[in-house]
Amino acid sequence: MKILFAASEAAPYIKTGGLGDVAQALPQELVKNKEVEVCVFLPYYKKIKDNPDFKVEFVKSFTTNLSWRNTYVGVFKAVSRSKKLSYYFIDNEYYFYRDSLYGDYDDGERFAYFSMAVLETLHEIEYYPDIIHCNDWQTALIPTLKKAKFGGQPEYDRIRTVFTIHNIEYQGKTPKEFLTNVLGLNDSWKSLLTHGDCLNFMKSALETADKITTVSKTYSYEIRHAYFAHDLEDILNENAYKIEGIVNGINTTVYNPRTDPDIEQNFSEKNLTGKAADKAYIQEKLGLPVRADVPVIAMISRLVSHKGLELVDFVMSEIMNRDIQFIVLGRGDTKYEDMFKFNSYCNRDKLSANITFDPVLANQIYAGADMLLMPSKSEPCGLAQLIAMRYGTVPIVRETGGLWDTVQPLNIETLEGKGFTFKVYNAHDMLGAMDRCISFFYDKQKWSKHVKNLIKYNSSWKQPVTEYLRIYNELMG
Asked: Going by C-beta distance under 8 Å and a sequence separation of 6 or more, which residues neighbour residue 52?
């Protein structure tokens, strides 16, 4: 079985968030099956092109059309040691030789080009997969362009498409003129691509992909309701027959407290001495008093509203009144960055605000913290809670999306369950869950036993991969 995995980012080459982790770990797990080979297609970003550590070779170049544009496509390749996992990089410096991955005025055109170039490359290198697995809005045009531009060609008609929604909030919207000016499609495709007063990349994928998946089971049902769907609920309900939720895993080799080279001292469920050392290390590193007796609560997140930051903001003074230490790592909206900076300035012995993206520091915080706070308004899956549990850090989460699928409420008598949860999107309900976790922290015997149970929890990709393979096989008949 040949699978093409199309994404806008994938570690270890480029990563800004959870998609980068998934696009690394899922293909790596898939090729463990002896009957599967995978190629991952990525834009050849500046940060990849200029990194001498990446051994990438030139394959070929050609041109593709975006309406009236005759545009260069360079194809580069890297091959894993197993030879069953290949990476192809689509090169065009006008679109991708930039300091940032997203957020430019022409993002729609950039990723329309990428989608078209992926499809054209198949003909140029004479490689036709059985499945093209597309991820989020940046590759959402691939199922539509496959039909619109390559329909009727047997090599393309036999390819089946899977589209995974990692976050429905970001949909890829462009003006209606984009249909002819960039995509070069006639009006017969207008209704399929149009949603509201613009073109919507994600909407087109929901209509044309053979299968739709989400990154957790609960999220696959939540997004059929207006509260979560960001105006796509009708389209999702019309296509409900092809929607399925599969909970993400994590790369348990990368995130492993026994072997992680980034943390101060390795540890396992058999000996938690190293976790205590990691706590002292992160406290000292971030300028907090080194105290074993105080619970350290971490937030490792994009600092945006749907992550529940407004709840934290509302009760920040009450949080700071508790005998805790609070560590924040992430970047995002200026108002939340400033909120954490200000409160850190006012509470230097209690709050460390690290407004940056730093994977090494993230792992050190996961290892050293006692608790992880994720009060999300919506959460397609969430990887932070899975990584935290892998490092024996107790999650405090809202019961939504993948958080509900992965963090069952803890029964402090039987120690069944994973963490502390709250249901209603309310600041004081969140604070109540935090207080219950803080109280449990001081029951040292049970706390230690629960931490060991979390480290043993299997959050690998093994089970999710079996579900993806089932879907691929069903699509292939």
From this structure: none
**pLDDT tens-place string over residues 113-166:** 999 999 999 999 999 999 999 999 999 999 999 999 999 999 999 999 999 999
Amino acid at 344: S
13: exposed, middle or buried (C-beta count within 10 Å: 0-12, 13-18, 19+)? Answer: buried
Structural domains in the chain plus CATH codes: 2-249+462-476 (3.40.50.2000), 273-456 (3.40.50.2000)
Phi/psi at 410 (5° precision): -80, 130
Which token pair is 157? 């008609």
pLDDT digits (tens, 9 = 90+) for 445-455: 999 999 999 99
